[in-house]
Q: What sequence folds into this?
């Protein structure tokens, strides 16, 4: 049985639709991240699961029971908020024990459970502290301990790490993942941070403009994005406009804004014809940079086919800017006046500089293609 099922969930505020037709089964014990930009509807969806918002239409079930119209206090869920929402007039221990007190847990038992949960989040010994004196990371741990102390069936986390600095946020991501693995409870985590979602999630649900576009394991949504929005949202890429100029067995030929005709290998009958406009995605990790631009890429020439049947595509361009990023170096390249970027990992004794002419190569099988409406072309 799915721990949480959302069926055709919708939330409107007057003429504004915040969430539209969201349906998903969140499995018992999994950590699902709802990922999307600001205003995509992810926090509103979480608040409807929590009972803090009432759906305009649709259904929510928890452990098989319909809770669509049930108030928050009747649901065995607990929420960790972005701003921590700690009580400044209570000690750390009193904050953690607050939910237990509201549930009429005896005083000694709630103290024991609160202390145990503080130990679990590495805040043992802080029980008598004033929460206003704690650092941001410590406050987040206390808020997490408070939510977990009541032993909820579902823990809901609404951008809980967004107020932390980068290093602490990364540490807390790992810690939160370990807590989830230990407890084996259902977590639903809202974030706009792609790295955070990939670190935490068993599955990621990607939202945009109130709709849940794709749900899948991190590798699935990254390697097989459902549309152009997801491809652009999940990481940096080069989008290149093109037009199909030929379709043959095993290959689509496209003329691109780069001034090169490129080849997209395919093992199926593609649903494109000559004249179809496509946007190609060339991710930096699939691009290889060569200093010698010699003749594998010449405008108008056919791109070479390798011995294993894959297709090597290549273009020649001039480096315009070099951006050193510590672990990577990013090169901004002009290819016949069109901007691209490529990256190398780490510092190199063979460092490239602005003004150099280079060849950028990639295997045609690594290219993703999208139609004008943003839908994916399966190659």
A:
């Amino acid at each position: 049985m799915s721990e949480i099922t959302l069926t055709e969930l919708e939330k409107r505020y007057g003429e504004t639709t915040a969430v539209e037709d969201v349906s998903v089964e969140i499995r018992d014990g999994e950590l699902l991240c709802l990922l999307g930009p600001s205003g995509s509807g992810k926090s509103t969806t979480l608040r409807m699961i929590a009972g803090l918002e009432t759906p305009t239409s649709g259904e929510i079930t928890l452990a098989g029971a319909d809770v669509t119209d049930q108030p928050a206090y009747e649901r065995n869920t607990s929420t960790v908020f972005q701003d921590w929402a700690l009580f400044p007039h209570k000690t750390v221990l009193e904050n953690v024990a607050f939910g237990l007190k509201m549930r009429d847990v005896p005083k000694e038992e709630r103290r024991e459970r609160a202390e145990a949960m503080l130990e679990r989040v590495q805040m043992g010994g802080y029980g008598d502290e004033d929460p206003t004196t704690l650092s941001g990371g410590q406050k987040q741990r206390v808020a997490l301990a408070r939510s977990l102390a009541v032993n909820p069936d579902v823990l809901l986390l609404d951008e809980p790490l967004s107020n932390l600095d980068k290093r602490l946020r990364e540490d807390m991501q790992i810690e939160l993942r370990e807590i989830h693995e230990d407890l084996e409870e259902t977590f639903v985590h809202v974030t706009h941070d792609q790295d955070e979602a990939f670190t935490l999630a068993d599955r990621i649900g990607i939202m945009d403009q109130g709709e849940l576009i794709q749900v899948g394991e991190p590798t699935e949504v990254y390697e097989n994005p459902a549309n152009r929005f997801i491809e652009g949202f999940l990481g940096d890429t080069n989008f290149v406009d093109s037009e199909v100029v030929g379709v043959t067995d095993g290959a689509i030929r496209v003329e691109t804004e780069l001034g090169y005709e490129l080849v997209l290998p395919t093992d199926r009958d593609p649903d494109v014809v000559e004249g179809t406009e496509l946007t190609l995605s060339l991710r930096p990790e699939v691009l290889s940079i060569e200093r010698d631009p010699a003749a594998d890429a010449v405008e108008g020439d056919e791109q070479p086919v390798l011995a294993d049947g894959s297709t090597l595509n290549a273009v020649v361009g001039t480096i315009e800017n070099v951006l050193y990023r510590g672990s990577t170096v990013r090169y901004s390249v002009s290819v016949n006046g069109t901007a691209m970027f490529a990256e190398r990992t780490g510092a190199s004794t063979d460092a490239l500089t602005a003004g150099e002419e280079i060849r950028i190569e990639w295997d045609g099988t690594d290219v993703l293609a999208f139609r004008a409406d943003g839908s994916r072309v399966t190659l």
